[in-house]
UniProtKB/TrEMBL annotation:
The keyword Transmembrane helix applies. It comes from Neptuniibacter caesariensis. GO terms for cellular component: plasma membrane. It is an enzyme of class 2 (transferase). The keyword Nucleotide-binding applies. It is found in: Cell membrane. This is histidine kinase. The chain crosses the membrane at residues 12-33, 40-60, 80-106, 115-134, 154-175. Its EC number is 2.7.13.3. Its main location: membrane. Residues 210-414 form the Histidine kinase domain.
Length: 417
C-alpha cells in the first residue's frame, strides 16, 4: 500500500515551489515583457492555490489516513488551477504549459491504473482546451516594441527554464517516493522477520512445555529411589554423600520446572523501572553466585545520574545469558562497561576468548545456532528476541584486541512514561 500521507506532503512541497515560480513568471510577464495581464483574474487563481496548500498542511496534521481518492482529488485540483492560470497567460503558447505533466507523472508513480488514466484524460482535455481558448500574453498589433524573433527567443528560453524546473521537480518527487517505498519495504521485511521469530518462539515454547511435563514423572521417580537408597546405605558415608548430591540436583531440576510453569505470571508482575546501574549490579551478582571462577572489571562511563530502564526477570536473564556466554569463552578478565546517552543505554561485554568466525557471525541470533560447540543454540536467539520486546538489540563483534565484544542497546524510559 502506498504511503499517500507522505506523497501528499511531497506534493505540498512541489505546490509551494510551483506557486513561487508562477508568481515570478507573472511579475516577469508584466514588467519584463510588458504583457497586459488581467491580474484581477490571475491573482485569485494563485490565491486559491496558496489556500489549497495551507488546507493541505492543516489536513496533514490530523491523524486521519490519506486515502487514494483524496490524493487523486488533490492532483485534479492542481491541474485545474494550473489550467486556470495558464488560460490567462497564453494558454498552450506559454512555455510553462508542460507544468501540467507534473501531476500526471506523480499519479503514475503513486496511484492505481484507473486513477492514472483519469488524470491522463484530464491533462489531455485541459491542454487541448488551452490550444483554442486562452488570453494571449502579447498583443502584437498593439505592442510594436516586441518583434516576432524576440518573442520567439523568449519562448525558447522559457521552454528551457520550464524543462529544467520540470526535471528538478520530477526527480525530487520520484526520489522521495523511492525512499518512501524503500522504507515501507524495510518495515515489511522487519514484520516478516518478527513473524518468523514469533513462530519459532511458539515452537520452542510448545516443546519446552511438553518436555517439562514429560520430565516431571522421571524426576519424581528418581527422588523416590534416592530416598530409598539413602535408607538402605546408611553404613556407607561415601555413597551417602554421592546420593545427597544427586538428590540436591534432582531437587534443583524439579524447582526449575516449577518456576517454568509460573514464568508467564511472574513476568507480567515483575516488570518495573530500575536504574541501569542497579540492573547490571544484580545481574553480575547472580553471575558470581553461579560462576565463582569468573573474574571481571566493571566500568561505568555514562555521565550524570543513571537512567532508568523497564526491567523484568526475562531482561535480567537475557543479560545473564550474555555474561555466561562470555564466561564460557574465557572466564578470566571479562571487561564490562555501562554507558548511556540521552536516549539509549549501552551494555558492553568484552571477553578474551577466540572470537567469532565470519560463518558464525552470519547466523548469530538464529535458533539452534551455537558458537560454543555444545548446548542447544537457543540462548542468543531467546536473548535477542527478549531485547527486541524492549525495543533493544544485541550485536556481536570481533574486538580489535582479540576476543568478542557484545553490545546491548536499550532505550531509556522516563518515569512519567
Amino acid at each position: 500500500m502506498a504511503n499517500h500521507r507522505e506523497n501528499l506532503l511531497q506534493l505540498s512541497y512541489i505546490r509551494t515551489v510551483t506557486l513561487f515560480g508562477q508568481c515570478l513568471a507573472v511579475i516577469f510577464a508584466i514588467y519584463g515583457l510588458q504583457a497586459e495581464l488581467n491580474i484581477w483574474l490571475i491573482g485569485p487563481a494563485l490565491a486559491v492555490l496558496a489556500l489549497l496548500n495551507l488546507i493541505t498542511y492543516a489536513r496533514l496534521m490530523s491523524p486521519w489516513p490519506v486515502t487514494e481518492p483524496e490524493f487523486f482529488t488533490q492532483l485534479i485540483a492542481d491541474m485545474s488551477l494550473y489550467g486556470a492560470i495558464l488560460f490567462h497567460m497564453g494558454g498552450a503558447t506559454n512555455p510553462f504549459i508542460f507544468l501540467l505533466l507534473v501531476p500526471l507523472i506523480i499519479a503514475s508513480a503513486t496511484l492505481s491504473k484507473r486513477y492514472v488514466w483519469l488524470v491522463a484524460i484530464t491533462v489531455v482535455v485541459i491542454y487541448s482546451s488551452l490550444l483554442f481558448y486562452y488570453e494571449p500574453l502579447i498583443q502584437l498589433e498593439n505592442n510594436h516594441q516586441h518583434r516576432v524573433m524576440e518573442l520567439f527567443d523568449f519562448h525558447i528560453v522559457g521552454m528551457w527554464i520550464n524543462f529544467l524546473l520540470t526535471v528538478l521537480v520530477v526527480t525530487y518527487f520520484i526520489v522521495r517516493m523511492q525512499q518512501s517505498m524503500q522504507k515501507q519495504q524495510e518495515k515489511l521485511e522487519q514484520e516478516r522477520e518478527k513473524r518468523i521469530q514469533d513462530q519459532q518462539l511458539l515452537s520452542l515454547a510448545t516443546m519446552a512445555a511438553g518436555t517439562a511435563h514429560e520430565l516431571g514423572t522421571p524426576l519424581s521417580t528418581m527422588q523416590v529411589l534416592l530416598k530409598e537408597l539413602e535408607h538402605e546405605h546408611q553404613a556407607n558415608p561415601e555413597l551417602l554423600e554421592d546420593i545427597e548430591l544427586l538428590r540436591q540436583q534432582t531437587d534443583i531440576c524439579a524447582k526449575r520446572l516449577k518456576q517454568m510453569a509460573q514464568s508467564v505470571k511472574q513476568e507480567q508482575s515483575s516488570t518495573r523501572l530500575m536504574a541501569a546501574t542497579l540492573i547490571i549490579d544484580e545481574t553480575i551478582e547472580q553471575l558470581m553466585i553461579q560462576r565463582p571462577e569468573v573474574s571481571y572489571s566493571l566500568l561505568v562511563s555514562g555521565q550524570g545520574d543513571s537512567p532508568s530502564l523497564n526491567c523484568s526477570t526475562s531482561l535480567r536473564q537475557s543479560l545473564l545469558n550474555l555474561l555466561n556466554n562470555a564466561a564460557d569463552a574465557q572466564p578470566k578478565d571479562i571487561a564490562i562497561e555501562l554507558d548511556w546517552d540521552q536516549q539509549h543505554v549501552f551494555f558492553r561485554i568484552h571477553d578474551k576468548g577466540p572470537g567469532i568466525s565470519i560463518e558464525q557471525s552470519e547466523n548469530l541470533g538464529k535458533p539452534f545456532v551455537t558458537t560454543k560447540g555444545k548446548g542447544l543454540g537457543i540462548g542468543l536467539f531467546l536473548t535477542a528476541t527478549t531485547l527486541a520486546r524492549y525495543a533493544g538489540d544485541v550485536r556481536l563483534y570481533n574486538h580489535p584486541n582479540g576476543g568478542t565484544l557484545t553490545e546491548v542497546t536499550l532505550p531509556i524510559r522516563k518515569h512519567h512514561e
